[in-house]
Design brief:
219 residues, alpha+beta, four-stranded antiparallel β-sheet, 42% helix, elongated
Length: 219
């Protein structure tokens, strides 16, 4: 992949800015489970995901996690360069969910070019707006949807990501994604199993009736 694959406004940048971005790129291979960025005090740089999967989440004072969004191939992780986002008022942690290959643009390089380039500045604002839209969608889910509906929706989303109906995932991991307690997730999964929608086994959940799970998630 080429760096321009991440920037639809690439041709609007000057040749000098294109060359500075190319020359600044640092390639990294991240193992699954590795925390790449940890809060606003950290500044890992702008991450361009080539392959793999990253998870952005926040952590409560009590240690409870909730997933804000995930990043896939050709996604840009902006919050990993949070030191250039002075208005950011919450700490976001970025972790590799799978072995991930990515490119890093150092924050100071990107920030300097962005200050000189209206197309890059506007595109960065678009990325920021898209991420906050995902956060607002999550807030609506937490506020207005019951936990059984959220669990059903999460299982369907995970099945689509993994391209299969058998998910190798623990109750604890689901709870971390949804920002709740493991016991709550276990209770919801047992309910779904009792309704014939899923089958539970150690470290795995198998979806048996995706149509009814879809209906539940939308009610």
């Amino acid at each position: 992949m080429k760096v321009q694959d991440w920037f639809p406004i690439w041709d609007e940048l000057t040749g000098e800015h294109q060359e500075r971005i190319r020359n600044s790129l640092i390639r990294r291979r991240i193992e699954a489970g590795t925390v790449i960025h940890n809060g606003s005090a950290d500044c890992a740089g702008l991450l361009l995901v080539e392959s793999g999967r990253l998870r952005a989440y926040i952590l409560s004072d009590g240690g409870r996690e909730i997933t804000l969004y995930r990043l896939f191939d050709r996604d840009i992780c902006l919050f990993s360069a949070s030191c250039m986002l002075r208005s950011l008022q919450f700490d976001v942690t970025i972790q590799a969910e799978k072995d991930t290959e990515l490119w890093v643009i150092p924050t100071e390089i990107y920030q300097r070019i962005m200050a000189q380039s209206a197309p890059l500045s506007n595109y960065t604002n678009e990325i920021m707006a898209a991420r906050f839209s995902e956060v607002m969608w999550l807030l609506e889910q937490v506020m207005w949807k019951s936990m059984d509906r959220r669990v059903a929706g999460f299982l369907l989303e995970e099945a689509a990501i993994e391209d299969g109906n058998r998910l190798s995932i623990t109750h604890e991991a689901i709870a971390n994604h949804l920002g709740t307690h493991r016991e709550v997730v276990t209770r919801m999964l047992r309910y779904l199993q009792g309704e014939g929608l899923v089958k539970l086994s150690r470290g795995a959940v198998e979806l048996l009736d995706e149509k009814r799970l879809e209906e539940l998630s939308r009610t």
